[in-house]
């Protein structure tokens, strides 16, 4: 079997590469559907260069105890499948044309195929869980997590173009949208490997902090990088009324009066005006404040991770989490 190409991030983690390659292969092996268009669409998404962070955290937290590696690889695959399904549906709602520098499924194959593709992946998630989970608890947690992701997306939709959105509302939103799945990944890795629920809850808490930092950094990238670097147009979120931490911090400063006329253009804002928003947010220190918020969550995560047993798995968890703070894509 030819090794699956992994994201360059994993070049520094040779011990983890074989299992991540097996995660991707297992995902591919579970795509058994007669419709060629949907199959091609899903496989294109799976191989579009995702970082596989959620399965990686699951696998690493499962390494604190000897356990069935094939079962842990399968559960890690279910997490990445769930993540992929949510991305496909996100792109439909956002009418996104690009993701990971590639044309989205909904743009290339149409919204109907994209809906079917996302729905089918949800089925695959539970098919894998039913086969490999050691208890109903894991299946229950996955279904609860799906609900939290949905609630996070609904909250984001309800707050579109909400100029008085608070930082607490933003944190609540990204917790549901992103951090919950990181938390679940860490919990399942620990719990399904045979650790106590107390140990697994500690893993979940670390994962929640990691997920919060990750999403805040993702939001910062939109204000720091070019369209080519992030694989999609800059400030797409602003045009769609999704306001993130750099902008929210900037709106608390004197540049608010300059930002409001631009933001009130809503979906009619031009590329040039988006660049104006980007410049104003940077000038106001919004990006720097968001970076500090991400640093705070990262430090919280590192503090929690250092309390786990001193093993190669912990060393990789610390290295990976620290590395995410300085990522550029």
First-residue to last-residue Cα separation: 30 Å
Strand order of the largest sheet: 1-2
CATH class of the largest domain: Mainly Alpha
Number of structural domains:
2
How would you state the average pLDDT, rounded? Answer: 89
Global geometry? globular
What is the radius of gyration computed over CA atoms, rounded to a whole number of angstroms?
20 Å
The ordered H/E elements are HHHHEEHHHHHHHHHHHH
CATH superfamily of the largest domain: Farnesyl Diphosphate Synthase
Number of strands: 2
- Which structural class fits the helix and strand makeup? mainly alpha
Number of helices: 16
CATH domain topology of the largest domain: Farnesyl Diphosphate Synthase
Unreliable runs: none
CATH architecture descriptor of the largest domain: Orthogonal Bundle
- How does the major sheet shape up? 2 strands, antiparallel
InterPro entries: Isoprenoid_synthase_dom_sf (IPR008949), Polyprenyl_synt (IPR000092), Polyprenyl_synt_CS (IPR033749)
Pfam families: polyprenyl_synt (PF00348)
Keywords: Magnesium, Metal-binding, Transferase
Family: Belongs to the FPP/GGPP synthase family.
Structure commentary:
With 329 residues, the chain is mostly helical. It has 2 domains: 14-137, Farnesyl Diphosphate Synthase, CATH 1.10.600; 160-329, Orthogonal Bundle (Farnesyl Diphosphate Synthase), CATH 1.10.600. It contains 16 helices and 2 strands. The chain has helices at residues 17-29, 36-46, 53-61, 69-94, 105-109, 111-132, 136-158, 167-191, 197-224, 227-230, 236-239, 245-250, 256-263, 271-283, 286-305, 312-325, and strands spanning 98-99, 102-103. The chain has a two-stranded antiparallel sheet with strand order 1-2. Helix 4 packs antiparallel against helix 6, helix 4 packs antiparallel against helix 8 (167-191) and helix 13 (256-263) runs antiparallel to helix 14. The protein is globular and about 60 Å long. The mean pLDDT is 89.
């Amino acid at each position: 079997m030819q090794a699956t190409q992994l994201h360059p991030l994993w070049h520094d983690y040779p011990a983890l590469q074989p299992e991540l390659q097996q995660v991707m292969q297992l995902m591919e092996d579970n795509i058994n559907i007669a419709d060629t268009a949907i199959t091609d669409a899903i496989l294109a998404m799976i191989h579009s260069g995702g970082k596989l962070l959620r399965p990686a955290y699951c696998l690493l937290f499962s390494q604190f105890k000897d356990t069935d590696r094939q079962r842990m690889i399968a559960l890690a695959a279910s997490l990445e499948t769930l993540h992929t399904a949510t991305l496909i549906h996100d792109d439909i709602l956002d009418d996104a044309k690009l993701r990971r520098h590639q044309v989205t499924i909904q743009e290339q194959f149409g919204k109907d195929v994209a809906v079917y593709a996302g729905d089918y992946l949800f089925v695959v998630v539970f098919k894998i869980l039913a086969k490999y989970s050691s208890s109903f608890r894991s299946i229950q947690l996955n279904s609860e997590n799906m609900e939290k992701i949905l609630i996070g997306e609904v909250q984001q939709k309800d707050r579109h173009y909400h100029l008085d959105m608070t930082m607490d509302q933003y944190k609540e939103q990204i917790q549901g949208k992103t951090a919950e799945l990181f938390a679940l990944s860490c919990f399942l890795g620990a719990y399904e490997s045979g650790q106590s629920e107390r140990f697994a809850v500690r893993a979940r808490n670390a994962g929640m902090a990691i997920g919060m930092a990750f999403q805040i950094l993702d939001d910062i990238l939109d204000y720091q990088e070019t369209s080519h670097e992030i694989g999609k147009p800059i400030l797409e979120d602003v045009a769609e009324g999704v306001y993130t931490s750099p902008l929210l911090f900037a709106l608390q400063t004197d540049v608010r009066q300059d930002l409001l006329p631009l933001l009130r253009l809503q979906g009619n804002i031009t590329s040039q005006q988006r660049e104006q928003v980007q410049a104003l947010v940077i000038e106001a220190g919004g990006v720097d404040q968001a970076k500090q918020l991400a640093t705070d969550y990262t430090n919280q995560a590192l503090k929690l991770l250092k309390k786990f047993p001193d093993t190669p798995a912990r060393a990789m968890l610390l290295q990976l989490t620290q590395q995410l703070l300085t990522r550029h894509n």
